[in-house]
Amino acid sequence: MDIAIVGGGIIGICAAAYLAEAGRDVTIFDRTGICEETSSGNAAAFAFSDVLPLAHKGMIRQLPKWLADPLGPLSIPPAYLPKLLPWLIRFWRAGAPEKYEASLAAQASMMKLAEAEWMGLLDRSGARRMLREDGSLELYESEAEFKASLPDWAARKRFDIGFSHVEGDALAALQPGLSPRFVKGTFVPGWKTVADPKLLGKAVWAYAETKGARFEKARIDHVEASQHGATLTLADGTTRQARHLVIAAGAWSHQLARDLGDRIPLETERGYNTTLPNSAFDVKRMLIFSGHGFVITPLETGLRVGGAVELGGIKRPPNYNRSKALLRKAQNFLPGLDPSGGREWMGFRPSLPDSLPVIGRARQGDSIVYAFGHGHLGLTQAAATARLIRDLVLGQNTALDLSAFSPNRFR
């Protein structure tokens, strides 16, 4: 093969589209299908204004309070803590003040590229109709919570991200029916969402297929560099040869990177949601409850209530009590919300300690490139990542300086 991509999520789909547009022969391998796992159930946000790495968004400060609640915004199963500890230490270090400016600048440059590339890809693939430009509304339950958010908004303002703080009638107009417990909000008019993330992924893939991209349903158990590219070993023991290999397998990517001598500290944020019927409540735009770690998004296919973080790896069974806890909070925050008829879901967010993805070449060969670790921002940054992967595979100058995203930064 010319180019093999491991991973049929939104990153792999977009990479396939960009490479196929360039006239390359592309095959995606995935164990289940195109956009069938984590990329199918996210919150549907193009979060281009979300430039602050998690380690800098007050998470460290709130860790003790959140961890005290087993169904709160962040949960770590006690038995998993010893395995997780090295990642947590790296996460804590990533929040150091001296790393703030570099991380912020890298994320902001990635977001600027992401917005431009997504708008172009939506037009070329005929998926622009799926874009919703209603903005987002972040909500605060106290004056103290609002004031604590102001430094983060000041940081966003430096990168020309528009927003306005609202209260009273202005807040009620943006979202009628809110609980009176919310005293203020911040409206971000440039925030965008999509009609449904799974449908968008399928639409981009359909476009990639028109350019010649192909799909093979298979689990890749092992990869290695070869003289002329890479060798992929499938679960059935057969092998495939490729001149170029892109690893975009989400939460499983670091296992394949280890085959190539790269030890990348990827951890899995298990996210939960419930998608209710559209009739559950008239939500006007994405609502963000940052103090509780979840959002509510109106989709074409329902009302999605989801978020929170469970750092528990990829082997533990889902704990859907977390979905139910989010739904109970949503009922308190939107009196009159009908919680019946929902579909529960859990997905794996592949996250790195500094909240930046890995985009770059493997240690063992220039023909193998990585594209994973986007955390909460996989959908948002997929088109930008695809542009960068195309640049690398074609041997062109990349649209961004990739040093901040290097696979070698964790050595």
From TrEMBL:
Cellular component annotations (GO), alphabetically ordered: cytoplasm
GO MF, any single term: oxidoreductase activity
Keywords (A to Z) from UniProt: Oxidoreductase
Tree of life domain: Bacteria
Membrane spanning stretches: none
FAD dependent oxidoreductase domain location: 2-392
Transcription as UniProt keyword: no
Family matches, as SUPFAM superfamilies: FAD-linked reductases, C-terminal domain, FAD/NAD(P)-binding domain
The protein, known as: Amino acid dehydrogenase
Organism: Mesorhizobium sanjuanii
Lineage: Bacteria, Pseudomonadati, Pseudomonadota, Alphaproteobacteria, Hyphomicrobiales
